[in-house]
Amino acid sequence: MSPVKLYHFPFSGPSRGALMAARAIGVPVDVEIVDLFKKEQMKDSFLKINPQHCIPTLEEDGFVLWDSHAIACYLADKYGKDDQWYPKDLKQRALVNQRLYFDSSSMYVKIRAICYPILFLGETQIKEALKDDLNTTLGFMEQFLSDSKWVAGNSPTIADLGGSKTAQNYHALQKIKRELLLMEKQSKKISNNKAY
Ligand SMILES: N[C@@H](CCC(=O)N[C@@H](CS)C(=O)NCC(=O)O)C(=O)O
To answer: What atom of ligand 1 comes closest to residue 108's alpha carbon?
Structure first.
């Protein structure tokens, strides 16, 4: 299998999520770093590939795809040895999709609202309202995890790899809400899974 190219920046949760999905599914990846701190995503060469200038971006034989969730779905559909990571059963798949959209439209948005001003705008404090907003969303996540072992059922799927909500961010989130015991348990499960 020839490798796919992933434009990646390790500080980015979505980008790490796409890379984890590729590794879990077993797709060889050529990683090309796009350094957001140096604004490399705004170079003409990258804008030609992705005018929306975001990472992760996947390139495979001239086919270009961005958004970590879309990338994970594509890789799982195309390269998954079975349907464990992205179930074919309609209801199971719908639940995975719902969790992916939750990650994209809610979790990522709340985390970005906190991280972006600190990383790029010189902010040094986290506003209480932003913490409260994130805690509300984390509460939904706790509810999902109290009903099932993994984010979308009783076995791991690409919904567990979403860059905004996995073990990767647990230690940062812990500083915001220490009593997230379910998140802690989940982060251990994810770290112990052989795919990582
Ligand atoms: N929903 C997208 C978010 C992608 C995104 O916003 N990436 C950020 C880094 S976390 C980025 O590339 N920012 C640089 C820019 O937009 O110029 C995904 O899941 O891939």
So the answer is: 1
Ligand 1 pocket test, pick from 35, 54, 65, 164 with the greatest ligand atom count within 8 Å of Cβ, gives 54
> Could you give the angle at which helices 181-192 and 167-176 cross, rounded to 10 degrees?
160
Instruction: Give the closest residue to 55 by CA, choosing from 63, 103, 46.
Output: 46
d(CA 11, CA 187): 18
Ligand 1 atom at shortest distance from the alpha carbon of 17: 19
pLDDT in tens, 54-105: 999 999 999 999 999 999 999 999 999 999 999 999 999 999 999 999 999 9
Report residues of the chain scoring pLDDT below 50: 178-180, 195-196
What integer pLDDT is reported at residue 175 of this predicted model? 56
Determine the CATH number of domain 5-79.
3.40.30.10
Q: CATH 1.20.1050.10 occupies which residues in the chain? A: 90-193
**CATH 3.40.30.10 domain extents, the chain:** 5-79
Residue with tokens 């701190």: 37
CATH level 2 (architecture), domain 90-193: Up-down Bundle (1.20)
12 is known as an active-site residue? yes
The protein residue with its alpha carbon nearest to ligand 1, atom 14, reads 54
